[in-house]
Automatic annotation (TrEMBL):
<dbReference type="Pfam" id="PF07833">
    <property type="entry name" value="Cu_amine_oxidN1"/>
</dbReference>
<dbReference type="InterPro" id="IPR036582">
    <property type="entry name" value="Mao_N_sf"/>
</dbReference>
<feature type="region of interest" description="Disordered">
    <location>
        <begin position="52"/>
        <end position="122"/>
    </location>
</feature>
<feature type="compositionally biased region" description="Low complexity">
    <location>
        <begin position="109"/>
        <end position="119"/>
    </location>
</feature>
<feature type="domain" description="Copper amine oxidase-like N-terminal">
    <location>
        <begin position="128"/>
        <end position="235"/>
    </location>
</feature>
<feature type="signal peptide">
    <location>
        <begin position="1"/>
        <end position="31"/>
    </location>
</feature>
<feature type="compositionally biased region" description="Acidic residues">
    <location>
        <begin position="52"/>
        <end position="108"/>
    </location>
</feature>
<dbReference type="InterPro" id="IPR012854">
    <property type="entry name" value="Cu_amine_oxidase-like_N"/>
</dbReference>
<protein>
    <submittedName>
        <fullName>Copper amine oxidase N-terminal domain-containing protein</fullName>
    </submittedName>
</protein>
<keyword id="KW-0732">Signal</keyword>
Amino acid sequence: MVKGTGFKRFSAVLVIAFLLTIATPAAMTFAAEDNQNDEEIILVVEDVNEEVNEDVNNEEQVAEEVEATENEEAVEEVDLEEEAAEEAVEEEPVNEEELESNEEENQAVDENSNENSENNDGKLSIYVKGVKISSDVEPFIDSNNRTQVPFRAIGEALGAKVDWVAGLQQVIVSNDESTVVMIIGDKNYYVNSATLQMDTAPIIKDSRTFIPLRALGEALNCEVTWDSETRTVHVE
């Protein structure tokens, strides 16, 4: 019985060894095939990546070539336009009469600019019927934004008779039609028999008597206009 058991065990060991001998090469074969398949897959993926990279590089190269071509065409168009403009300038005849006319216009503009610059030096200019009034004292704009002028200079320029009544501090300016009476510091003034009011008053400044120009001019039936750009008053 013991010998029989030992033989059975020995037989079982032989069977197991035989099975292992058969199974191991098969398993190794399967593993090798799996590794080979993985390597083939990796190679296929790498090939696909290379093709994709080549496509991207080709697209970038094509885009660069297109951009370079467009830039060259744009530069050529600009050059052609400049050449055409130069040819037009060269072909256009010179009109001497037109040049002389332009020079005269430019000279007139320069003269007007010089005149305006002289009047824009901060001083006021007074013109009566186109003639500039000269005085040893300058007119000015008072706190009520009204032009004050030396009464004797403006009165005489208007062809009127001018009187100063020191005791009453009155200025009297008269012509053939009207007599105007103004009082220092008083906004009321008198034209013939009428009493009128202005928004400012005559003033004594630096020992000289100034009166509102617009009020006097309109009282003597004159038109008074103001040019803010040249700081000039015109009395017509």
